[in-house]
Each structure stands twice: as C-alpha cells, then as structure tokens.
Amino acid sequence: MEKTIKIKGMVCRRCISIVKDIFQSQGLVVYKIKLGEVTYQEKEASALKKLDELLREEGFEILTDRQSTIITKVKELIENELINSESHTKNFASLVTENLHMDYDTVSTLFSNTEGIKLEQYVIGKRVEKVQEFLKYTHFSLTDIAFQLGYSSVHHLSNQFKKITGMSPSHFRELQVAIEETVK
C-alpha cells in the first residue's frame, strides 16, 4: 500500500538523497520524494519505528499528524486568502496568528523545515501564480490585479513577478495572447 509522510529537516537535494537511501536501506520502495515529503510502499509498523530512528540520526524527523495538519492549514489559508479576499487589509503573519492561534515565527519555522522553502517565499510564489491566472484569463489591468491580490503597488507586483518568472507581467500577457492566437 502506498503511503505519504512529511519529513522535517529536508532542505536541499542532498537531503533528498540521504532520506531516499535511508528508506531503501530498510527495504522500502520509494515512489516519489521531494523536499519535506516521501511517498513509499508501506510495510509493517515496526519498520516505521526503525526508519524514524535512522532519520533522527541524520537530523530529520517524521512529522506527527499535528504538524502535518498545521502545514495543511497554512496552505489552505494561503489559497483561501488569495481566492476570497477582494482587498487584503491584514498582512499574512497576522492572518496565520489569528487563524491558527500560534506564533507566526513557530509556524514559519515548521513550514520552512518541512517544505524546504521559507513560508514568505511560498506565499510570494502563490501570489505570482495568481497574477499569472489573472493575466491569462482576465483583462484586468495590473492596477486592478495588484489591488485584488493585496500588493502595495503595481511596481511591487511587477518586481516580484519578474523575479519569479523572469519576465514582466506585460510580456507574460503578450505571450499568452500570442499562444492563444496560434492555437486558433
């Protein structure tokens, strides 16, 4: 049976290699592995205990259901905030604190250690994905998009977008139009 678990402390490609080696040394088939997560063929519970010991020796930790739940809630909070808010009046740290009733720094550290990316960078990446959706599927101006997604200015949106995608939002929209015309 296939099982996916979260692993705290995976922060680089070398970590992926070490964790994969640990799983394979225990006779476990790894189907998929990425920073903070391993999908493998599940065996008896005693194998998981030994696996946990070996991972801890290397500085990793299998996350408990509570920790996984926190990560899931943070991701859902980000998605909901980007989908539902028409104007973002609170910063994300405040939203995390209010909704999870936990200190932002604690949540941020858990997220970074688990997902292999800083929480702030994850949020920026999700916002840029949303900008791409708006540019691709709407005719909203950059000013409207910036307001909709809580950017302080069009300039701020453009800088983040270019840093993540390597192109300006207007160039991205032009490419989408060109692709659409080619498909027709």
Automatic annotation (TrEMBL):
Domain (HTH araC/xylS-type): residue spans on this chain: 72-175
Keywords: DNA-binding, Transcription, Transcription regulation
Gene3D superfamilies, A to Z: Homeodomain-like (1.10.10.60)
A Pfam family this chain is assigned to: HTH_18
PANTHER family: ARAC-FAMILY TRANSCRIPTIONAL REGULATOR, HTH-TYPE TRANSCRIPTIONAL REGULATOR EXSA
Name of the protein in question: AraC family transcriptional regulator
Species classification: Bacteria, Pseudomonadati, Bacteroidota, Cytophagia, Cytophagales
